Amino acid sequence: MATGARRRMGVEERREQLIAVALGLFSHRSPDDVSIDEIAEAAGISRPLVYHYFPGKQQLYEAALRRAADELTARFVEPHEGPLGARLLRVMERFFDFVDEHGPGFSALMRGGPAIGSSRTGAMIDGVRQAAYTQILAHLDVDAQAPTPRLELVVRSWISLAETTALLWLDGRRVPRAELERQLVHDFAALAAVSAAYDEGMAQVVRRMLADEPADGMFADLVGRLLELPQTA
Length: 233
Description:
Blueprint: H1 11-28, H2 36-43, H3 47-53, H4 57-75, H5 84-110, H6 119-139, H7 149-170, H8 177-196, H9 200-211, H10 218-227
């Protein structure tokens, strides 16, 4: 019986394989806890061969982080169609898909990466946050170069809240994920509404947010829940 020879990978193909393998391992454990030997074993190659393609673990981590950052950035892309509340809910669902898939890796990433981290990893993380910020402003029909100070505060605070919520959820998953996705959409509406009470520019933004919101939409759901709060004796 003839046996097929193992196909030799090209340089870029092998690099892509190592990035995928490393990202898979980093998704289940903190990058600090993953060794080059484990990456080599999972890829089916020798440890020296890993170093042939990447000078060290930091460079491989950064390549895997770039892949994850690009994927996470893409999760915030949403067509500008339909009510804003429904759009934000779809974004949060995809965001939590990513968090669910990359658990420990996401946690390590948002807490500053591995101990061998560098300024480049921090820049990549900031790039994801900036991309999310730009996407949200676009959904609000606001030029990313000229948001009002209060609007910038609302959007950046909400992005930070989403990160913190996801990290806390990963620590035991004690609150149903679907509830948190909806709650974060409501959090955005609440942050905007409170700011609107202090600033006419934000009031205009909120009016636009509500203009296309249906009676059974996400923002109306928040109002309904508040009206149904039980009365105290």
